[in-house]
Amino acid sequence: MDKFFSVEELAKSGDTTARAVRLYIDKGLLEPMRIGRVICFPEEAQRTLQKIRRAKRLGFSLDEIKACQTDKDLSVLTSAIRRVEQLISDGEEEVSDLRRR
Fold first, then answer.
1. Which runs of E-coded beta strand occur in the chain?
2. pLDDT per residue over 50-75, tens digit each?
3. The whole model's pTM is what?
């Protein structure tokens, strides 16, 4: 049987707020289902929320995250990959510098 989450349950499972989940809905990053007047999410929404939060931690804006989710243009994805690779490189260099101290 499929499990469904309310806005509040999804927020709690993703360690975020219901307000953030509603913002992601408004921005088109999360697509809720309606059962009567109740908004709910399938289990897959948990993975989508995790991806959104990870991208935000990496410094991507909500518009950039949306573009990566929906844009079929390879240049958008290539640009995102280059950005993450640069973040990894910068992070490794920073760790090295800190270890030398």
1. 4-5, 33-35, 38-42
2. 999 999 999 899 988 998 888 777 88
3. 0.80
